[in-house]
Write a structure and sequence with these properties.
Strand order of the largest sheet: 2-3-1-4-5
Largest sheet: 5 strands, parallel
Bound molecules: BIS(adenosine)-5'-pentaphosphate
Strand content: 5-15%
CATH topology: Rossmann fold
Oligomer: single chain
Order of helices and strands: EHEHHHEHEHHHEH
CATH class: Alpha Beta
Distance between the termini: 13 Å
Shape: globular
CATH superfamily: P-loop containing nucleotide triphosphate hydrolases
Number of domains: 1
Length: 189
Amino acid sequence: MNLIMFGPPGAGKGTQAKMIQDKYQIKQLSTGDMLRGEVASGTDLGNRLKSIMDAGELVSDEVIIELIANCISEAECEKGFILDGFPRTLHQAEELGNMLGHMARKMDHVIVLEVDEDALVERIRGRAGEAGETRSDDNEETLINRLKVYNDQTAPILPYYEERGLLRKIDGMLPINEVTAKIEAILDA
Ligand code: AP5
């Protein structure tokens, strides 16, 4: 089973993807986590990525598509995967479709978590205030741009998946466990 967990920053994509990974034994592929890993390694590429991510902009399609192409062909994705943070542009969505086609695989569901913008801001503020390592893009200024980039470049992908009959919209304002139950109902149907 192959899924996309879709939604704006702070919608709960990562939270839900981890739970689905554990229950269904399919691999979570978080492009944000992978990129933060590269930044933490302090390579030249990592340094270039950091300035893009700190500004709340998107990393180039070329870099991200190569990353995903490598991951989904790994043995750990054989039983399926949950894309968390990818695709984010129409070009990424089309390239993903091509990749899956070449591998004779398909996307099963695109799960969209719908959350009010005010609640997103509150959630990111809450996460920034939590103990542990704070993400350098979890600040007011960057968040405003992350939301703008989502609305301008990422949300326009939705009709692409709607036309293909794959979109499943979920009320992401519900408590975490209720969102999980709704996702599971879709996956188990
Ligand atoms: P990425 O890491 O993907 O960040 P994001 O999309 O902004 O999403 P977040 O991780 O902030 O939120 P989430 O939806 O996972 O929510 P979470 O579960 O954490 O990307 C970071 C950057 O990397 C991008 O800006 C870009 O630069 C680059 N990048 C990544 N992918 C790319 C791509 N494909 N192309 C180009 N560039 C790319 O939850 C948030 C908080 O809310 C948590 O504290 C959580 O506990 C809480 N919460 C979750 N669910 C609920 C709920 N139902 N009720 C109450 N609280 C909740």
